[in-house]
């Protein structure tokens, strides 16, 4: 595709672009902030988030036949302005005129987001890794999952364009959708903004993660001390001696209770919920160190 259809086409594309640039210059002069989509070479998106956005669109047969025209359009700089906000993608796309594209995307409903966070609990260590897409395979698969992942299905996407034939996804809309993939390379956070969710909640130790840890520690309270020690890697010093006089039993059990509470409280802050299978991969890294035991007892 691209410029493959002869010289005539190339000139007309260049002419269109000049006109669009003129129009964009006018808009800028009026004080409207313009954010064009620039694509170097043929690859539209390179990052995990950008590529996943494009892959998601391409897997739906509803879009399959319509999307390809958008690829050459976005590559040749036709998306002269693209803005992504909660629930909406707005773009100006140059064709024979400058067209206005509006794409409404339903925000992710709370239960779906909670389920995503729950399934990824304790596995996403930092915002930087999350936004760079340096994620465990399980997390990648989960957020990309069709239907209940982070990317929208066709029924969650409402298209419109100011051109006459937008109803069947015109090339302006298709180019805009690809433009989002390119934009996510630079600003992956916009995906979360678009879907109306807080990416921080995916992180280990986030508020949502803490809520799950609290639930897990409630379970831990009914476990024996040895189980608690095993779970959190703590040494139960009182239990280790064995030769403590009977008179000290009351003191011991008080000490044990204190230790148990501290261990649980500490675990609530620092450790991933132990019962979740996906947390296992990082459990070694995250576990409360045995050295924390003496200070936790005081
Ligand atoms: Zn259109």
Description:
It is a single chain. The protein has 15 helices and four strands. It is α+β, with helices and mostly antiparallel strands and about 300 residues long. The protein has two domains: about 5-200, no CATH class; about 205-295, no CATH class. The chain has a four-stranded antiparallel beta sheet with strand order 1-2-3-4. The model is unreliable at about 1-5, about 220-225 and about 235-298 (pLDDT under 50). The chain binds zinc ion (ZN). Zinc ion (ZN) binds near residues 161 and 166.
Task: List key phrases describing it.
single chain; 298 residues; alpha+beta; four-stranded antiparallel β-sheet; 15 helices; elongated; disordered N terminus; disordered C terminus; binds zinc ion
> Which shape, going by the Cα principal axes?
elongated
Bound molecules: zinc ion
Q: What is the topology, as strand order, of the major beta sheet?
A: 1-2-3-4
Helix % is 40-55%
Q: What separation lies between the terminal Cα atoms?
A: 71 Å
Give start-end ranges of low-pLDDT stretches. 1-6, 219-224, 235-298
Q: SSE order, as H and E?
A: HHHHEEEHHHEHHHHHHHH
Q: Helices and strands: which structural class?
A: alpha+beta
How many runs of DSSP E, i.e. beta strands?
Answer: 4
Number of domains: 2
**Overall residue-averaged pLDDT value:** 77
| Total of DSSP H or I helical runs spanning 4+ residues | 15
- Biggest beta sheet attributes: 4 strands, antiparallel
**Radius of gyration based on Cα positions:** 27 Å
Give a quick precis of the structure.
The chain is α+β, with helices and mostly antiparallel strands. It is built from 15 helices and 4 strands. It has 2 domains: 7-198, no CATH class; 207-297, no CATH class.
